[in-house]
UniProtKB/TrEMBL annotation:
SUPFAM superfamilies: HD-domain/PDEase-like
Intracellular or extracellular location(s): Cytoplasm
E.C. no: 6.1.1.14
Enzyme class: ligase
Predominant subcellular localization, coarse grouping: cytoplasm
Native source species: Listeria weihenstephanensis
Entry protein name: Glycine--tRNA ligase beta subunit
Domain DALR anticodon binding: 583-678
Family listed: Belongs to the class-II aminoacyl-tRNA synthetase family.
PANTHER family: GLYCINE--TRNA LIGASE, CHLOROPLASTIC_MITOCHONDRIAL 2, GLYCYL-TRNA SYNTHETASE
Designated gene of the protein: glyS
Length: 688
């Protein structure tokens, strides 16, 4: 027999951006608990709204299945004494199993007889197990939590009611003086309290109280209503997925409506209008067929269709005030020159241990020009880079960015163009913030990409220099994102940057500014490891095997695109017939070469067999060709060496008693190993 089980956590309104992840966490914890307790069920369904997190377990078994437990006890020679009586060991085993020793039997396992017991265990009743839901609820974690009243529990928002219903029976437990029951609450204004008599009626009962409990149905209703407005008004309404998700989690009973704003505000940059609508008011903008903004917006009401005209006027009033402020700020910003704005940056502290924004920009300029030199950029490009670095933070002191931080960089580009700056310089001002998330858009222009890398590398190194580093999940300055951004940009641009060289120069730039509170060598090692770990994340996302990632990353994270190409190539060929024997042969060379000491010149006159000469000739050929070979040809060259390596080890005793011969052989292997180790730490690759 089975019944449905409903768990609902009723709360004060939760932050919209955390609801989806929270209800998924609740579902996963319940499913894990069901598996651990061997409780059969059909499926789980999740429901959520601003005021509730709910899971229904469909067709949950009323009890655990009965099972037979098998236990192996002491061997027969230990279990019985010379007179055939049960020993203390056997009696202890019986007591531990809760059985009479006389019921014990023996079973032969691998030629030895042991006490063997099969015991039938009755499954526990689900009703007796479900109170453990209390621990599932209280153990949940959230990005933001709070205490309330005198309770010790820290939770996303105060718990107001609880439902734990198995069939028509309430599972009793209590959290912060809130006892479980079967009563839920409908829409805060349109609905009321209502009793759930059976979990199967949950969704329909809440709908009667103006709550669409299924978030996917709520979202579909919003999209459908937006599409209806599009058709009626002949508009285009771009639906941003992130905004739709947030709006969906702000309402329990969605009603979509449209309103308008003064057409004069269309003179403002579109980014200002869109940011004001989306980020501050959660409105969807309206565009024409060409994608140009129109003086309308879409909003979603948490309620029914009554008095929509009044609701629209209220939203228009709020947006009008916002746009009026934006227009004022924009007009005031147009009165400020870039040089005036840049001068103000000297009064803004980037970080108390890292100086002002002006001081940071000076350091970034030095890093940027080092990278430009490595990339062999022209003098004209270097000039644009220098100008971009001199001004790239100027919009941070503008009124509009002060009011709408989301517009940093965006307004910098626009203001720069309005004041006659070069288009590439203006674009770099916007692009240097990219990527703004782990998988965010990357800068497209070379100047913007270089500025982004220089800015992020200087930021990363600077914080490490003053011993401010990410710990666990705490990364207040987004240094992990900066490091990942550096790697992604270099990969996308396929830049042959000697990253470790640039890093070393950056550390010295920080030291010259007096920022180092820990030794430069330690900073270099820490930042290198930090960058390596971000490279590992990129390779792992590409489903590259972890041992191959280790082999490539440990070879050094100097030229990022080349390292990624090596990892991809090794991973692609890992199942090829030649791969395993080649890796084994190369690893053998590397391992034995570690015994090489001193600076020994290889002397072919000391060779004692043809295999030594053949390997020597092959290594000299590799040495000559290696610098001009592309990555795939380098791997092919190593594969071609396998026959010579195998023959060498078959016919040659490397560790000869003759010291000169021994050192000569180790020197040959050491020279070959230097090429292998530059390609990858082959010994890290698992070929078993």
């Amino acid at each position: 027999m089975s019944k449905d089980f409903l768990l609902e956590i009723g709360l004060e309104e939760m932050p919209a951006k955390y609801i989806t992840a929270s209800v998924k966490q609740l579902q996963e914890r319940i499913e894990k608990w069901l598996a651990e307790n061997d409780l059969e069920y059909k499926t789980t369904e999740v429901y959520s709204s601003p005021r509730r997190l709910s899971v229904i377990v469909k067709d949950l078994a009323e009890k655990q299945a009965d099972r037979v437990e098998e236990s192996k006890g002491p061997a027969k020679k230990i279990a019985k004494d010379a007179d055939g009586n049960w020993s203390k060991a056997a009696q202890g085993f019986a007591r531990g199993q809760g059985v009479d020793p006389e019921t014990l039997e023996f079973r032969e396992i691998n030629g030895v007889e042991y006490i063997y017991l099969e015991k039938e265990v009755k499954g526990a009743a689900t009703m007796d197990l479900l109170p453990e839901m209390r621990q599932i609820i209280t153990s949940m974690t959230f990005p933001v939590s709070m205490h309330w009243a005198d309770y010790d529990l820290k939770y996303i928002r105060p718990i107001k009611w609880l439902i734990a219903l198995f069939g028509d029976q309430v599972i009793p437990f209590e959290i912060t003086n809130v006892a479980t029951g079967n009563e839920t609450r409908g829409h805060r204004f349109l609905g009321g309290s209502v009793t759930i008599t059976n979990p199967a009626d949950y969704e329909e009962t809440l709908l009667s109280q103006f709550v669409v409990a299924d978030a996917s149905k709520r979202k579909a209703a919003i999209v459908s209503q937006i599409e209806e407005i599009e058709a009626v008004e002949n508009w285009k309404i771009p639906v941003d997925a992130g905004l739709l998700e947030e709006v969906n989690n702000l309402v329990e009973y969605p009603t979509v409506l449209h309103a308008t704003f003064d057409e004069a505000y269309l003179e403002l940059p579109e980014e200002v209008l869109i940011t004001t609508m989306k980020e501050h008011q959660r409105y969807f903008p309206v565009v024409d067929e060409a994608g140009k903004l129109r003086p309308y917006f879409i909003t979603v009401r948490n309620g029914n269709h009554e008095h929509l005209e009044t609701v629209a006027k209220g939203n228009e009033k709020v947006l009008r005030a916002r746009l009026s402020d934006a227009d004022f700020f924009y007009q005031e910003d147009l009165k400020i020159t870039i040089d005036e704005a840049v001068a103000k940056l000297n009064n803004i502290v980037f970080h108390e241990k890292l100086g002002t924004l002006t001081e940071k920009m000076i350091r970034v300029k030095k890093v940027a020009l080092i990278i430009a030199e490595q990339l062999n950029m022209t003098d004209a490009q270097k000039g644009k880079i220098a100008r971009a670095v001199d001004i790239y933070k100027f919009d941070l002191v503008t009124n509009l960015v002060g009011e709408f931080p989301e517009l940093q960089g965006i307004m910098g580009e626009k203001y720069a163009l309005l004041q006659g700056e070069d288009a590439e310089v203006a674009t770099a001002i916007r692009e240097h913030y990219m990527p703004t998330s782990a998988d965010g858009e990357l800068p497209q222009s070379d100047i913007g990409a270089l500025l982004a890398v220089a800015d992020k590398l200087e930021t990363l190194t600077g914080f490490f220099c003053v011993n401010i580093v990410p710990t666990g999940s705490a990364d207040p300055f987004s240094l992990r994102r900066s490091a990942l951004g550096i790697m992604r940009i270099i990969q996308a641009k396929n830049w042959d940057i000697r990253l470790l060289s640039v890093l070393a120069d950056t550390v010295e730039i920080e030291r010259a500014e007096g920022l180092n509170t820990i030794p430069s060598e330690e900073v270099f090692e820490q930042v290198e490891l930090f960058l390596q770990n971000r490279l590992r994340a990129i390779l792992s996302d590409q489903q590259i095997r972890h041992d191959i990632i280790d082999a490539v990353v440990k070879a050094g994270s100097n030229v990022v695109p080349e390292l990624i190409e090596r990892a991809e190539l090794l991973n692609k060929n890992r199942d090829a017939e030649w791969f395993r024997p080649t890796m084994e042969a190369l690893a053998r060379v590397v391992n034995i070469s570690k015994k090489h000491q001193g600076n020994v010149t290889i002397d072919p006159g000391l060779f004692e067999n043809e295999s030594e000469q053949q390997l020597f000739d092959a290594v000299q050929k590799l040495k000559k060709e290696y610098p001009t070979l592309i990555i795939v040809d380098r791997l092919r060259a190593f594969a071609a060496l396998r026959t010579a390596i195998d023959a060498y080890f078959e016919n040659t005793l490397v560790m000869s008693d003759d010291e000169a011969v021994r050192n000569n052989r180790l020197a040959l292997l050491f020279e070959l190993a230097s090429f292998i180790k530059e390609f990858a730490q082959i010994e890290e690759i698992n070929v078993k």
